[in-house]
Design the sequence.
């Protein structure tokens, strides 16, 4: 279903078409409802969490500021990807402008890596809380959260910036149909008439440098946490300590697992349907966003109490 713009190699592309499961209209219909529900759940749950933390004075603490940052990232990621996918499913609005495509590419790469970095800072927060509880108030402060937020923003904005720039500088002179639901770097750059080795190499190095280092440091944090927990001799202390970081670990595990499955499907793409990595790419922008606030809301007593208090005030 690839559309050739012109027989002339000098013709430049001004817009792209997202070929989002167009060969499987039944799959589009089947996906539209659960994807819509997941999107509404993600937006509603994250908005509720943000409003609760903002209005409830007892939640104005560093740990909840970190959680607010994660919710903001999830909202932006959902708004960047899911509405466009749903418009394709419902109205066949597959066209996306050149600039909008590369803006979407930048936001996806930047904010996904920022989410990974946020999980790293939250893992460090749990490490200090469990392994150095007496020093926690002096280490995890509002200033620490502010510095961490600046670090996350600067690091990921700078490292992921070249990804859309490298893709945008290529010449797109033959085809404009992206075999994907989103403007993923490799899906777009392979349409170019130029050599895309540099694009692939930079994406690989940047991705594994940032996400890989984050996951290694998160893993080490939980190794130290587990070792400290096993040394606790007070009755019930180990269970309580594990409970405080259990929700965080569940979300990190899910984030890492779905990312690993996505990578593996790309590696063995000749053995699986081409729709599988595309579907996983879309779901990776909405399922973690829907789960994050729910898991924290269910497992964190202070957040549940804050939501109930706001609901009582509203009534």
Sequence:
């Amino acid at each position: 279903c690839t559309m050739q713009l012109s027989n002339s190699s000098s013709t430049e592309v001004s817009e792209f078409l997202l070929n989002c499961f167009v060969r499987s209209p039944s799959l589009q219909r089947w996906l539209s409802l659960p994807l819509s529900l997941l999107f509404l759940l993600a937006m509603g749950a994250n908005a509720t969490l943000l409003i609760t933390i903002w209005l409830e004075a007892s939640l104005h603490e560093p740990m909840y500021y970190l959680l607010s940052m994660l919710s903001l990232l999830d909202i932006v990621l959902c708004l960047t990807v899911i509405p466009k996918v749903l418009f394709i499913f419902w109205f066949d609005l597959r066209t996306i402008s050149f600039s909008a495509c590369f803006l979407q590419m930048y936001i996806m790469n930047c904010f996904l890596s920022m989410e990974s970095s946020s999980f790293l800072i939250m893992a460090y927060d749990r490490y200090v809380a469990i392994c150095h509880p007496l020093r926690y108030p002096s280490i995890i402060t509002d200033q620490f959260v502010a510095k961490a937020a600046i670090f996350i923003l600067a690091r990921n904005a700078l490292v992921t910036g070249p990804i859309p720039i490298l893709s945008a500088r290529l010449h797109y002179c033959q085809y404009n149909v992206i075999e994907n639901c989103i403007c993923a770097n490799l899906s777009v750059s392979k349409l170019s008439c130029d050599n895309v080795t540099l694009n692939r190499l930079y994406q690989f190095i940047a991705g594994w440098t940032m996400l890989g280092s984050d996951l290694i440091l998160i893993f080490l944090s939980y190794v130290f946490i587990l070792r400290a927990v096993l040394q606790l001799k007070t009755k019930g202390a180990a269970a309580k300590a594990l409970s405080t970081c259990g929700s965080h670990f569940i979300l990190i595990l899910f984030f890492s697992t779905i990312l690993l499955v996505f990578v593996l499907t790309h590696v063995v793409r000749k053995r699986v349907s081409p729709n599988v990595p595309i579907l996983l790419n879309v779901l990776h922008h909405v399922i973690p966003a829907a789960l994050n606030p729910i898991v924290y809301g269910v497992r964190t007593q202070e957040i549940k109490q804050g939501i109930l208090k706001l609901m009582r005030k509203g009534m």
